[in-house]
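Help wanted!
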Amino acid sequence: MSFALLAPIGLTALAALALPLLIHLVRRIELRTTVFAALRWISERIRPRRRLRFERPWLLLLRLALLALLALLLARPVIDEPTVAKPAWVLVAPGTDLGAARAAVSITGAEWRWLAPGFPAIETPAPSGALPIASLLREIDGDLPRDAQLAVVVPEQVAGLDGERPRLSRAIEWHVVPGRMSAAPALPERETVEWSVRYAPSAESRVAYLRAAIAALNARGMGHYKLDAQRDNVPLAATVRELVWLGSAPSQAVTAWIEAGGTALVDSAPVDTTLVDTRPRAPGAPIWRDADGNVLAGVQALGHGRLVTLAAALSPDSFPRVLDADFPQHLLELLQGSPAAPALASADALRPSTTPSGTEHSARLASTKPLDPWLALLIAVLILVERIVATRSPERR
Amino acid sequence: MSSAELIPSDVRARLKKLRLRARHGAGGDGLGQHASRSRGAGLEFVQYRAYEPGDEPRRIDWKLFARSDRYFVRESERDSPLTLWIVIDASASMAQCDAARPAWSKLDAAKAIAACAIELALRQGDRFGLITLAAGGPALIAADAGARHRDRCLLELERIACAGEWPAEPALRPLWERVLPSSLVLVLSDFFDDASAELALRFAAARREVLTVQMLSAEERDFPFTGGHRFLDVENGQERRVEAAAVRSNFLERFVVARKNLARRFAAGGIRHAEYFLDTAPDLPLQNFFGIVSERVRA
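Answered by r_m:
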């Protein structure tokens, strides 16, 4: 059992201790006035000394103690609870062979749980579905007492990651056993990427620029791209994942398709006539700016899909960037987006690192008991006593 | 207003043993209880004196003439009444009182002593008058005898309040016309102002019998202060800021010397002097002057 302060900066309130000291000191310096006719026989040479003497020392001590306790309350004192139960936990990631896990872990008397939300007991059926493994590891690390032992059994392939090696406050046992976690199915790599283009009759001329861009991409060897340009009344094929919609606002069917997970590039932004600023603008979060900072394209989330809107119609007179050399590259980025972070990794590479200082705070919180209520009670009692002492008749002089 | 408020009952009881007594014979006419300097027909025999032309023939002692064949005049002491003048210093410094008893100032004590003296004089049929010395000059109640005059004086006593300083010398001149030689003058003052001691000495030098009571507070005697103090003189507005405990011994030493000097001056001038402290009974100075103890000492 030990004592600790969660906010030691609160102790700076101890500076307030100077207040009662000053109060009791200043009163001392005051001269008492006495009418005294036999004045001429008092020698004037001895001036009143300014002694460091305190009036009513017990009251002063009481007030000092009161202030010190208040400062302590501000510093949020806690006391470490003695941890009696569950000194060791073993967490088993779903998808792990239980027999292999029991063989791998040598801790006796440990608490066996699934590494899943709520940490269900190992006797219950294994949870299924995508699990935020990294997040769960941090959670249990924060919840367990500081001195508790933690062992984690994971399969060789771990999913549910968030782009970083987990960093925990303690050293844990990291057992890797054969197995594989179920992860969200990854999209198959495509040999040939086919972009669908649907254009309004008025926008047929703009398709040429897309063709030029495709040709440039293919020439640079950045992949094999094809263009499926049709009128806007031709329905989309089921395998299409990128669509360029030219000349008009997207139809209901296209919007529904985007919401189901497609990515669409629309060139004619619906003009909002209520705006005073009539400069071309693209709705959504900016993803492409020119050198002056003007937004050339914006992206919006629409259901599961993305809707990329160009600031103007895809023609040289309204959108001069079409003629630039880097337009094909930008077009590729607009349509494909940034690659997703890996969610599946080898368990060996994922062994959590230990950073004691960073996460110590939360770990402490879980295993300690705040002293605030008792301190507040003590302060209340002290205030009462201080009032009684202070209002008692000063002294019998 | 009655004298009961000025004189506590125990003090009044002790007054019964006191008699106003002048050291020298009192002058004046009329029958009183005091030995007179004027001799002549009377009850108490003093001496035989040879006849001188001009003596009344009826005062010749004829029996002695028959024995000695010479004229002798029999002389006796004539008893005469005494005039008591009570002089009260009502300057601002007399408002001082002890912290232990804030309602009992030097002036209050002086009033009580004056009331006691008036009671004594009334009982003996003596004449008494009251003089108050304050900023506006002397306030005076002419000497007279009787219970009504006592009440008049007590009313005046009640009215007195402290103000200002001791009056200047010209303002005191009317006193000499009122306070006749051979009268008893009781001066109640703190004598911190040298003019007050001067007045008492001049009265004594001019054949008035003077009794002085120096009114002192217990704080002046003991100086019980500690810590930083600001001492204030209300009369001239002076003040001293001192560390009380440090100046105590020095003050007591010098103050005792000053009191002794004053007593010595008064003794040299033929004045009977007493000190009165605010924490003692107000009849103590009178016991000192007129009591049995003093009588025995004088005998």
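OP: Thanks! One thing I noticed: Chain A has a mean pLDDT of 78.
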